[in-house]
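Our preliminary data section would be incomplete without showing what the modeling component actually yields. Below, a chain of 177 amino acids is followed by its predicted structure, encoded as tokens that our downstream tools consume directly.
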Amino acid sequence: MTAKNTDENKLEGIDSGADLYVTKPFDIGIISAAVDKLIEKYRTIESFYSSSAASLDFMEGGSLVNKEDAAFVRTVTGRIAENIGNNGFTAEKLAESIGVSVRNLYRKFKDLGLPSPKVFIKNQRIDYACRLLMTTSLTLEEIMYRCGFMSRSHFNKEFSQREGMSPGKYRIEHKNP
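Predicted structure:
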């Protein structure tokens, strides 16, 4: 509560963390209503954090998912990263490495709104290729093999479809100095 009632003073008070900025003279009804709303707000926050909804986590894209789902995606991404250069690392091998059936893996990806495991693995490989193109001086062929592609034409096709340009052009446009 203050006698300072300019807009600058109000803004300064709110910026400093005040939940409510009341100037003199004041109406007790307005203060009472504001306090009731603040109490309701803090009860809602307390209820949220003591419920199962507090097990929510943010994921890329800003969509809200359960912490278990976020952990699942981190596990999957980690397994793919461990096997990024292994051309034989398929959706079946991914499922085996995390201890689920292939059918359940596909179902989980669908439930999370992710592309199919096969496409997800390919996207991880291309993401890795992009990082290598930007940060290393490895040849395109070395990058192709490190990312698990065995055919230069297949690598170029998949890369170009996703990035809209060839790997060589991507390197020129995105290379870090």
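The first helix runs from residue 7 to 15. The chain has three domains: 7-49, 56-117, 120-174. Preliminary results of this kind motivate Aim 1 of the renewal.
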